[in-house]
Design goal:
Elements lengths: L4 E3 L2 E3 L5 E6 L5 H4 L3 E7 L6 E6 L6 E2 L7 E6 L4 E6 L8 E9 L2 E4 L3 E5 L2
Parallel strand pairs: 2-11
Antiparallel strand pairs: 1-3, 3-8, 4-5, 4-9, 5-6, 7-8, 9-10, 9-11
């Protein structure tokens, strides 16, 4: 069982940036690198959608709606996955969730709220 913790959400104005973090307290490196780490988001009244995904040794995958504006990265030493979001738009307002996935295993964090509003 992985206890995933997200942080970094908040209220920003259109055009601003935010950086989200996702980590599992006390996880060891070998465990961290086994999983595919992804960010999803869910806006009110909408389905949860993929934002970005990162697997050790493979390139990142991005949802079409955020290509060119968001960047997923991993710091293996810190056992943390990041989502750098730039040029935020009001339609990016959502709860952002981190997911760890490997085979039949799937773990979700509680989410962090991102609100983009003037």
């Amino acid at each position: 069982q992985l206890h995933i913790v997200e942080s970094g959400g908040g209220l920003v104005q259109p055009g601003e940036s935010l950086k989200l973090s996702c980590t599992v307290p006390r996880i060891i490196l070998s465990t961290f690198t086994k999983y595919i780490w992804s960010w999803y988001r869910q806006a009110p009244g909408k389905q949860r959608e993929l934002v970005a995904s990162s697997e050790a040794g493979s390139g990142a995958v991005y949802g079409d709606i955020v290509k060119g504006r968001f960047t997923i990265s991993r710091n293996n030493n810190k056992k943390t996955t990041y989502l750098q979001m730039t040029n935020l738009e009001p339609q990016d307002t959502a709860v952002y969730y981190c997911k760890a996935h490997r085979g039949n295993e799937e773990y979700w964090g509680q989410g962090t709220q991102v609100t983009v509003s003037a």
